[in-house]
């Protein structure tokens, strides 16, 4: 039996396969020994399938790809020649494109052929099938641009036609998180998750903001999650008034460390812009302006308290302490430039000489810059 036919029969025999991986031939014996429970489908050298997981020998990938490509091109030529409406030809195109894309996930023509067939049928079940199939492709190619793009095409196509759209969006977000656990710094996956935000309800956005906080805390070095949180916050700001948005902001800017300083600048800037709107809006009630001014003073106090807690540099010159002191001091310096109308507040509560001294101590090579900025 040729490789392609064998591969396709395995895929058809288990429509619930949710993961594909490429295995070195020497690992097949180990897979056979570890198999327990349901019997595995295996020829011992090329394919292994059990518990809806499919393994393909790395030695078979190239010949299998060549066969799948030839079969797909032949099916597409026949489909174009005979025209639309032939279910048998459409089935052949879908079958061969499936095999080809599992082996070469960014084969754009194969993805386009699937779009062509599905869009002509306009059946919701086929769109759902494309979500399942592209998830299978992502199991072995998590950074495939074409696979993520295909999912966005499906969601656009079913918007307004599917009553379960919000449930689908929730599962999409979970898929990205699952893939992000295995594929670090996967910008394509997180970009897809950011794209989903525009389709979410307000309740979903708030839920995602809360849920992503835990993930961000466990993956500090992966800044993709922080970009996602920014997208969520911007959506909240767009849809909400200040009194609805500020509690989330207070929680978001409560603590910060190391790599989170730039994220804190973003949050503080948005927070200040919201308050500044009230401070300069002549239509605002006097009580609201007083409340806003008090909140701003409290904000400044909290940021200066953060500066004090981060500015202690022990005598051992440990680099982390020095970096933290530099980040906190430059953050306060940046803050004074963003709200010059509150400069007097800073002068009363902060000794500029101390800030300048600290910056010069922890980062002496930039002392000229500190002199020019702190005048």
UniProtKB/TrEMBL annotation:
Q: Which InterPro entries match?
A: Prenyl_trans_a
Query: Would I find Hydrolase among this entry's keywords?
Result: no
Judging by the UniProt lineage, the source's domain of life is Eukaryota
Q: Which UniProt keywords apply?
A: Prenyltransferase, Repeat, Transferase
Q: Which GO terms describe its cellular component?
A: CAAX-protein geranylgeranyltransferase complex; protein farnesyltransferase complex
Q: Which GO terms describe its molecular function?
A: CAAX-protein geranylgeranyltransferase activity; protein farnesyltransferase activity
PROSITE patterns the record matches: PFTA
Parts of the chain that traverse the membrane: none
- Family assignment from sequence similarity: Belongs to the protein prenyltransferase subunit alpha family.
This protein's name? Uncharacterized protein
